[in-house]
Amino acid sequence: MKLFADTAIIGEIEEVSTWGIISGVTTNPSLIAKSGIALTDAIQKIVNLVDGPISAEVAEGNATDMVQEAKVYAKMHKNIVIKIPMTLEGVKAVKQLTALGIKTNVTLVFSTSQALMAATAGATYVSPFMGRLDDLTKTDTAGFELVKDIKEMFRTYGFKTQIIAASIRHLNHVDQSIKAGADIATIPFHVLKEMLQHELTDKGLAIFREAAKK
Ligand code: E4P
């Protein structure tokens, strides 16, 4: 499973880019607002830090408007992927962008039916939102089941669309993404840092440090 950074904060992307293990970045309007810079400025900076798919989200609207906006972002850099909301107009836009050779990431996916429609339209990626689905269902398994079911569906019907496990809130979501067979997980900065840690690693290092002194 590839690791993407789910952030538009340039300082965070600068730091994770030095780790050498981040293959892409996803942004959304909330993350852009948090970053304090405009989407186009963020794109310019991010493409220079990470050489991989960078998702830039268009504003929800009719297919024509979304395609127009998408073309502007796609022209900015070869790595730009257009994030499109999972609506009927979004599906139409994905179909048109696919025909133009522009990559898409269909976002706000909460069911296998939505994923099927997005994949049928030619989406390069679908982003099932684990955390928000768990919140809605008040469980800690609904997001996992969704990613697992989409994976199985894509395998059964031979879709090439890749699954980006999104709305990841904690380490358990990362483990669940791996178990469900997600192609990619897009992960907030604080969870990426938590992934490096284990109390027994710290304990083991302390023991080795003491031993080294002797
Ligand atoms: C990424 O593509 C999604 O926009 C993001 O993971 C959503 O996360 P949230 O549910 O924590 O806002």
Can you put this structure into words, describing what you see?
The chain has 214 residues and is an alpha/beta fold. It has one domain: TIM Barrel, CATH 3.20.20.70. Helix content is 56%, strand content 17%. It has an 8-stranded parallel beta barrel with strand order 1-2-3-4-5-6-7-8, surrounded by 6 helices. Strand 4, helix 5 and strand 5 form a beta-alpha-beta unit. It is globular and about 70 Å long. It starts with a strand and ends with a helix. The model has no long low-confidence stretch (mean pLDDT 98). The chain binds erythose-4-phosphate. The site of erythose-4-phosphate has 12 residues, from helix 7.
Please give the structural blueprint.
Layout: E1 2-6, H1 10-19, E2 24-26, H2 29-35, H3 39-49, E3 54-57, H4 63-76, E4 80-85, H5 88-99, E5 104-109, H6 112-121, E6 125-128, H7 130-137, H8 142-157, E7 162-165, H9 171-180, E8 184-187, H10 189-194, H11 199-213
Parallel strand pairs: 1-2, 1-8, 2-3, 3-4, 4-5, 5-6, 6-7, 7-8
Helix pairs in contact: 1-3, 4-5, 6-8, 7-8, 8-9
